[in-house]
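Predict the 3D structure for this chain.
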Amino acid sequence: MTSPAPAVLATYSRSGFVEGVHVGHAVVVDAAGQVVQAWGDPAHPLMARSSAKPMQAAAMVRCGLDLPVELLALAAASHSGEAMHIEGARRILHGVGLTADSLQTPSDFPLDPRVRDAWIQSGRRPEPIGMNCSGKHAAMLATCVVQGWSTQDYVDPQHPLQQAILDDVRRLTGDDVPHVGIDGCGAPVHVMTLVGLARALSGAVSADPPAPERVVVDAMRMHPEMVGGVRRDVTAFMRAVPGLVAKDGAEGVYVAALPDGTAMAIKVEDGSARARQVAVAAILRSWDPPGADSDGLDALARVPMLGGGREVGAVVSAIVVG
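Done. Predicted structure below.
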C-alpha cells in the first residue's frame, strides 16, 4: 500500500509572492495514543534526533540517575550554551567525580549566536561541553557511574546504557526500532514512526508521577530555560502554554504534548527549523489551551522574511486543523 504523500506544512512569501513551500508530515494523537488528525503520513519513519531526548533521559532515570529537577531538564536538553547550561553540565559530572574531559561530545561553540560570539571574542575555542548535547552526555556518564558501567565507551550502541535506552524507546513508542544510527553528538539515534514519537510524549505526560518518563517531562516543564535557552522557540513555547512539554530536534523534527495527553509530532522533509516552528505554533493555537499567551504564540507563528533590512514577507504555516 502506498504511503500518503508529504503535505505542505509552511509557505514562505516575499513581496506578496509565494516564493516556496516546506513539505513534511505531522500528526496529533489523543491521550489514548489514537490519531486525531494527520498531514502527510502519520507512520512516516524518521530519526527523531534530539526530540527523543525525553525518552533517553527517562531510561537513565530508570537506571538510577537521580538529579535535581533543573539538571534533569538539562539531561533532556539541546541547550544554547548559556552559563546556566555549561555550569549545569559541570555539576552533573562533578556529582559523580568526573570532569568535562570525560565527555565524548564533539568540540563545538554554543548554539546561541550571542553566546557563541562572546566565546569567540574572548578567545575561547570550541569545547565538548559547549556542544548542545553536553547535558545529555553528562547525564549518560553519571548513569554509568551509578550502575558501575564503563565510562570509556558509553556511546557504543552495545553498551548497557545504550541498550537500556533502546528498550525504553521501543516501550514508549510502541515501535520496533528497525535501525540505529549515530547522531550528531556521537550517541545512538533511533528510527521510529512519527506517530510513535507523539505517543511516547503523550504517554509520558499521562503517566503517574513515579514513572521515570513523567519525572523527566515534569522537570522539563518546570525548567524550560534549561531545555533550550532564553532565545529559543522550544523554551518560548513552554512558557507560552501552561503545562506544555516540547522538544525540538535536528532536521525539522518537533514533539509537544499538553497535560491532558494530547500530543503532536512534526517532521519537515527539508529539515527546516523555521517551518517546524510555525507548524507547531499553528497546531497549538488551534488547540486553544487554557491560560495560553496568545500574543506569544502569534509571535512564534510567523518568521519574518527581510528585504533591504525590513520585513517584506514571512514564513507561515499552511496547516489547516479541522
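The mean pLDDT is 97.
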